[in-house]
Amino acid sequence: LILFQKGQTSTPPPFEIFFCFGEEWPDQKPKEKKLITVQVVPVAARLLLEMFSGELSWSADSIPLQISHPDLKDKMVEQFKELHQLWQNQQRLPPAQPQPV
């Protein structure tokens, strides 16, 4: 990426990662003919490449994000955030004054 950014190579580096499950790979068959293949595109790598090539437009619509379905860990993180916020709010309150009996 640095060589591409400096103009020392004309082709951008590949940043896609391919996984093949259940079969030998690489072999004579192209990846399109495999039973199960997964393509992973690291968003940070794509953004850096677009930034260096001048293709990046910094609008929210230009970055397609896919959010996975929340699972138990995500819900726990949200609950911990809420608890932390409640604790911070409680720390800011003045100490309670004793009520006369």
TrEMBL record:
Residues 1-53 form the Interferon regulatory factor-3 domain. InterPro entries: Interferon_reg_factor-3, SMAD-like_dom_sf, SMAD_FHA_dom_sf. GO terms for cellular component: nucleus. GO terms for molecular function: DNA-binding transcription factor activity, RNA polymerase II-specific; RNA polymerase II cis-regulatory region sequence-specific DNA binding. The gene is Irf5. This is IRF5 factor. One of its GO terms (biological process) is immune system process. Coiled coil: none annotated. SUPFAM superfamilies: SMAD/FHA domain.
